[in-house]
Amino acid sequence: xxxxxxxxxxxxxxxxxxxxxxxxxxxxxxxxxxxxxxxxxxxxxxxxxxxxxxxxxxxxxxxxxxxxxxxxxxxxxxxxxxxxxxxxxxxxxxxxxxxxxxxxxxxxxxxxxxxxxxxxxxxxxxxxxxxxxxxxxxxxxxxxxxxxxxxxxxxxxxxxxxxxxxxxxxxxxxxxxxxxxxxxxxxxxxxxxxxxxxxxxxxxxxxxxxxxxxxxxxxxxxxxxxxxxxxxxxxxxxxxxxxxxxxxxxxxxxxxxxxxxxxxxxxxxxxxxxxxxxxxxxxxxxxxxxxxxxxxxxxxxxxxxxxxxxxxxxxxxxxxxxxxxxxxxxxxxxxxxxxxxxxxxxxxxxxxxxxxxxxxxxxxxxxxxxxxxxxxxxxxxxxxxxxxxxxxxxxxxxxxxxxxxxxxxxxxxxxxxxxxxxxxxxxxxxxxxxxxxxxxxxxxxxxx
Amino acid sequence: xxxxxxxxxxxxxxxxxxxxxxxxxxxxxxxxxxxxxxxxxxxxxxxxxxxxxxxxxxxxxxxxxxxxxxxxxxxxxxxxxxxxxxxxxxxxxxxxxxxxxxxxxxxxxxxxxxxxxxxxxxxxxxxxxxxxxxxxxxxxxxxxxxxxxxxxxxxxxxxxxxxxxxxxxxxxxxxxxxxxxxxxxxxxxxxxxxxxxxxxxxxxxxxxxxxxxxxxxxxxxxxxxxxxxxx
Lengths: 448, 231
Hints:
The complex is a heterodimer.
Chain A: E1 9-14, E2 17-22, H1 27-34, E3 44-48, E4 60-66, E5 69-76, H2 84-88, H3 95-100, H4 108-123, H5 131-159, H6 163-184, E6 193-194, E7 197-198, H7 206-229, H8 232-238, H9 246-251, H10 257-260, H11 268-271, H12 292-318, E8 338-341, E9 344-347, H13 349-358, H14 360-371, E10 379-382, E11 385-387, E12 390-398, E13 406-410, H15 412-416, H16 420-424, H17 429-439, H18 443-447
Antiparallel strand pairs in A: 1-2, 3-4, 4-5, 6-7, 8-9, 10-12, 11-12, 12-13
Helix pairs in contact in A: 4-5, 5-6, 5-12, 5-17, 6-7, 7-12, 12-17, 13-14
Chain B: H1 3-8, E1 22-28, E2 46-51, H2 63-70, E3 79-83, E4 86-91, H3 96-105, E5 113-121, E6 130-138, E7 143-151, E8 157-159, H4 168-179, E9 182-184, E10 214-216, E11 219-221
Parallel strand pairs in B: 4-7, 8-9
Antiparallel strand pairs in B: 1-2, 3-4, 5-6, 6-7, 10-11
């Protein structure tokens, strides 16, 4: 075979010797054709992604394979890097929530929560956040955990060919997104949790919708268990795949369902409660197999726990009608009284009437907060939350200005993705997909 | 008033010799507007930017236990800042590896999990412009601490901690990518988020945000870093 004019296997000289780029044709033919060439060893590096449907977004996998066995696996990331942390340094503290909500797009409320908790700690108003704001945060975060785990199970199922799991997973997730739309006005990118509380009160009828959702989910969650838990194909693909024990997890900084699948009940909602999680009755779910199947079962069980928390939060909200959802300090409380108008969500006409016609002070506060924003005392804070993927924390640094001096997000997807090599080397190519799906990385969070 | 007066004028800035006060830069005016934009009369106001200063013993609670257990690892001066119920150990780079190893292995410390490195660029902190901030968690004792190392911009080297905490592999690459901090001993310190041939380190304060003006219905909106601002 000629090495230069072959359209299927062009060759280039590199520091590692001659490299052939193969993009078609029968493998045996190519190997045979190259047999005469000097110093050719059969070392196959497969570039998977960044646009591969099985890699959870724009993740690039560089796999060195020997037959069907993966000998080395490396990740290439950064394809979704949008410079959110840099951009935040040019916007006010409240505008920051609009950015962070777009990072890990499957768990927007967790991004907002950890950022706002950090800002609140620097402002020293942690104890002033009203109870209703905390209950609403918990409600939204647990709904979000449900929707995120549903997507994880759905896409994970799709990648191994279990398409029904995908369709029913997205069916249920739509219901959660409908609730988000009802409460925050948006299905994604909410920017609803703000420093000092939440953007606005629960709309009329939201609690009824939430109760109806809980009742429906109690009927539908068992479907996942019935489809998957004892399904021999499902178990065959997941059991023993992506194994990582507790020591490995801690060395690699793994948190969330991955560490809980080793049997270690580590959950920040229990160990360092925030937003009043200590007042809710729920259990930390663990499994003892340290593999992909264990992670699936942990997520499934966590959805039941989330439902329990949502139920308790709904009960508490029923007793908090009309309570404030934002700190009383008018110099921090963002004037975000919104309402749905004929052209979508906008400033509430009542609020406009108040600031334009009734209250000079209200107008001044509105103007100052919207144009300049509030100042945050110099210092740094780190308040992590338990996101569906593990410990999500924002390192918030202020220099006393109206903008974040530096905000760094410790995203669990970013950290957990480092385990790809340990989880998949020595296994089959097909198991790489299962191992990565069990980590549940969201590239928006990885690359930020 | 000249620029020099702003930083040294005794009646404007309380120039302090007290080691507990850490001043990084000054802030002028009251409303963040600069130049002729500020018609409030407060434009001449100069205020120092004061970060929380070093704490004296006792630090309180378990902070002292951790500090006592950590003491043998220090060969160079170190200090502790306690702010908003969070404790920060400011460590010299030559001590970093010993401190990290002790933090992980000492039964009294047992910080099993390092949640990564975060870089911060303080251009006005002369001689220590680049900071590497490590957050550590002890699951055994349920404690959290922060370890901060600062290095000068002219010599941005510090040792890599991945022998102790392998999880810092990608975090150190990200901090290198974004700030140009060089972690000596890292097995493959390459860019991770930006393209391999990217010039500069985007998260540094001297790196511009970039952006182009946007035209819409006849109006032009300048890019975010050129808009009127009040920070």
